[in-house]
From TrEMBL, chain A:
<keyword id="KW-0812">Transmembrane</keyword>
<feature type="transmembrane region" description="Helical">
    <location>
        <begin position="181"/>
        <end position="203"/>
    </location>
</feature>
<feature type="transmembrane region" description="Helical">
    <location>
        <begin position="239"/>
        <end position="260"/>
    </location>
</feature>
<keyword id="KW-1133">Transmembrane helix</keyword>
<feature type="transmembrane region" description="Helical">
    <location>
        <begin position="138"/>
        <end position="160"/>
    </location>
</feature>
<protein>
    <submittedName>
        <fullName>Carbohydrate ABC transporter permease</fullName>
    </submittedName>
</protein>
<dbReference type="InterPro" id="IPR035906">
    <property type="entry name" value="MetI-like_sf"/>
</dbReference>
<keyword id="KW-1003">Cell membrane</keyword>
<keyword id="KW-0472">Membrane</keyword>
UniProtKB/TrEMBL annotation, chain B:
<protein>
    <submittedName>
        <fullName>Carbohydrate ABC transporter permease</fullName>
    </submittedName>
</protein>
<keyword id="KW-1133">Transmembrane helix</keyword>
<feature type="transmembrane region" description="Helical">
    <location>
        <begin position="279"/>
        <end position="298"/>
    </location>
</feature>
<feature type="transmembrane region" description="Helical">
    <location>
        <begin position="21"/>
        <end position="44"/>
    </location>
</feature>
<feature type="domain" description="ABC transmembrane type-1">
    <location>
        <begin position="83"/>
        <end position="297"/>
    </location>
</feature>
<feature type="transmembrane region" description="Helical">
    <location>
        <begin position="224"/>
        <end position="242"/>
    </location>
</feature>
<comment type="similarity">
    <text>Belongs to the binding-protein-dependent transport system permease family.</text>
</comment>
<dbReference type="Pfam" id="PF00528">
    <property type="entry name" value="BPD_transp_1"/>
</dbReference>
<dbReference type="InterPro" id="IPR035906">
    <property type="entry name" value="MetI-like_sf"/>
</dbReference>
Length: 275, 310
């Protein structure tokens, strides 16, 4: 029996939501304002002459189309790769947790999850240099995949815990080996948790800033988040274009999230409690 | 599968246990490969480099220098302020995030209309890139054309516009505030999930016993949230203390090092001065600090699970 929310509940919720959303509303309004309306000492919520100039400047003059493409390539690849790795490891975590190698891997992942990227920045940079992949998609894909493996594995394994073992026993009687069982029987019924885990990996890669900023210096492979930072450095006063770039950067994550948020929030809280 | 194939397979992996071990090892291989090459090896390198004179500009000689690098960090006049800023930033971020996260989780756990909308709205800040959060707040906090200064002066709360990110008196508090805005939704989602898992009978029974709302909150709700709270608070202490992106994006440590923190020092040592040895020794110190926090966390966690079992 849940308590019904009174007026105080609604007022507080509305205030917190406003606090959360207002920056985005303001971002959106600013992105459509021409420069003279941006530089007004009395900011207004209405736009007298709405314009797409900021968007076209960012997309075509500042080459953001290329950065969007780069971000998509890196994030999608990292997402698929981490999903595959997390499915394999998560399944074993769930089914064979008594084996020594599994216990060891579990501990190793728990520790890895706590080690922040910035402390490993230099050796990672040098490792990427040594592998000859510094100025390429590959360095980012590998880095992003590595740092989401622990949480993604925990998310998948907590889902596999809920799949009845009888299903696998039946598959084994039908002559399936373990790999076939996992990929043909179990994965098809795991779509919701695959979505939430993949989404986490994708969003993480799409949003990451530091590795993209440090590993990539050539424009050809630059991703969206460092591009915004560098664009700001070169155009400190052009807030309209900066807000347009920000709108562009959040469109994919927001859209995907709005469609899939049910799966995402459930999966995320499962994985985080387990980890 | 023909007979001969079956027999060779049997010879390799005789028992069921061996088959399970082989299967587990194969499945874990990709994950372990990534973690060993890209986390394990770099981690060892950091610990080794901390005691050597390693410089990116001078690759040839890397002599062992003992604790020289650590002395260099500790005698850096920027170290103590950066440590203080890190502690301030971490403490107030985590406290603010927890209060806001718990409040919003409790509100969302009630029966309200439009709950789905509120939940999405509250989660959105966590979803967007830090750089976007940073840009948008920089724009809103702009002293000349920013909406926040306009609203605050218009409502008479402040007399003069404040350069929130450019004034050393306000910069660190402002960065902390923006960080709370961006990070608290994660607490909301985790705490909400824990609240929903509390069985209703607990409340009903205590209601019969005549417990008031506040007593119910203190004696039922809070204890049930302990283990989730411990995990998220611990994770965020570490994530906040070592966060590089947020401050770099908002102020780059400025004005005049007013928002300089330890991760920014690591970045400067390594990427601007190319002094890998010193950067590694600071990283090592932070790892040591994290391990201490972890030991502390582990002790509380064991205590809580023992109490829950009894």
């Amino acid at each position: 029996m849940k308590k019904k929310g009174g007026p105080v509940t609604y007022i507080l919720l509305a205030l917190i939501s406003l606090f959360c959303i207002f920056p985005f509303v303001w971002m959106l309004i600013s992105s459509f304002k021409p420069i003279d309306e941006i530089r007004q000492s009395v900011p207004k919520f209405t736009i007298n002459n709405p314009t797409f100039a900021n968007f076209s400047k960012v997309l075509f003059e500042a080459d953001f189309i290329k950065y969007i493409k780069n971000s998509l390539i890196v994030s999608l690849t990292a997402c698929v790769l981490s999903l595959f790795i997390a499915i394999c490891a998560g399944y074993v975590f769930s089914r064979y947790f008594r084996l020594r190698i599994v216990k060891f891997s579990n501990l190793f992942m728990l520790i890895s999850q706590m080690i922040p990227g910035v402390l490993l920045l230099i050796p990672l940079y040098l490792t990427m240099k040594f592998l000859g992949i510094l100025e390429s998609y590959m360095s980012l894909i590998l880095a992003y995949t590595t740092f989401v493996i622990p949480l993604c594995t925990f998310m998948m394994s907590s889902f596999f815990d809920t799949v009845p073992i009888a299903l696998e026993e039946a598959a084994e009687l039908d002559g399936y080996n373990k790999f076939q069982t996992l990929f043909k029987i179990i994965l098809p019924i795991s779509i919701p948790s695959l979505i939430s885990t993949g989404l986490y990996a994708f969003i993480n890669a799409w949003n990451e800033f530091m590795f993209g900023y440090v590993f990539i210096s050539s424009e050809d492979y630059r991703t969206l988040t460092p591009a915004i930072m560098l664009f700001k450095g070169a155009n400190t006063v052009d807030w309209g274009s900066l807000m347009a770039a920000s709108v562009i950067a959040i469109i994919p994550v927001t859209l995907i999230f709005l469609f899939l948020q049910r799966y995402f929030l459930a999966g995320l809280s499962n994985g985080s409690v387990k980890g | 599968m023909d007979m001969s194939n079956k027999r060779t397979k049997k010879r390799f992996l005789r028992t069921r246990k061996q088959r399970e071990q082989f299967f587990s090892a194969t499945m874990l291989f990709p994950a372990l490969l990534f973690l060993i090459v890209l986390i394990g090896y770099p981690l060892v390198t950091v610990l080794v480099d901390a005691f050597h004179n390693v410089n990116l500009l001078n690759n040839s000689a890397q002599p062992f220098v003992g604790l020289e690098n650590f002395k260099k960090v500790l005698s850096d006049p920027k170290f103590v302020p950066a440590l203080q800023h890190t502690l301030f930033y971490t403490f107030f971020s985590v406290v603010g995030e927890y209060i806001l996260g718990l409040t919003s989780a409790i509100l969302l756990n009630k029966k309200v209309k439009g709950r789905a909308f509120f939940r999405i709205a509250i989660f959105i800040p966590w979803l967007v890139p830090i750089i976007v959060a940073g840009m948008t707040w920089s724009w809103m906090l702009n002293p000349d054309f920013g909406i926040i200064n306009y609203l605050l002066t218009h409502l008479g709360i402040i007399k003069e516009p404040i350069n929130f990110l450019g004034d050393a008196n306000y910069a660190l508090q402002t960065v902390t505030f923006v960080n709370v805005w961006r990070s608290f939704p994660y607490y909301t989602i985790s705490l909400l999930a824990a609240l929903q898992a509390i069985p209703d009978d607990l409340y009903e029974a205590s209601g019969i016993d005549g417990a008031g709302k506040f007593e119910q909150f203190v004696h039922i709700t809070l204890p049930q949230l302990r283990s989730v709270s411990l995990v998220i608070v611990f994770m965020h202490i570490i994530w906040t203390a070592i966060n590089f992106d947020f401050i770099w994006v908002l102020t780059q440590g400025g004005p005049n090092y007013a928002t300089d923190t330890l991760p920014l020092m690591i970045y400067r040592y390594s990427m601007q001065k190319f002094d890998v040895g010193t950067a590694s020794s600071l990283s090592t110190m932070m790892l040591l600090g994290m391990s201490l926090i972890f030991v502390f966390y582990y002790k509380i966690k064991t205590k809580i699970s023992e109490e829950t079992l009894n």
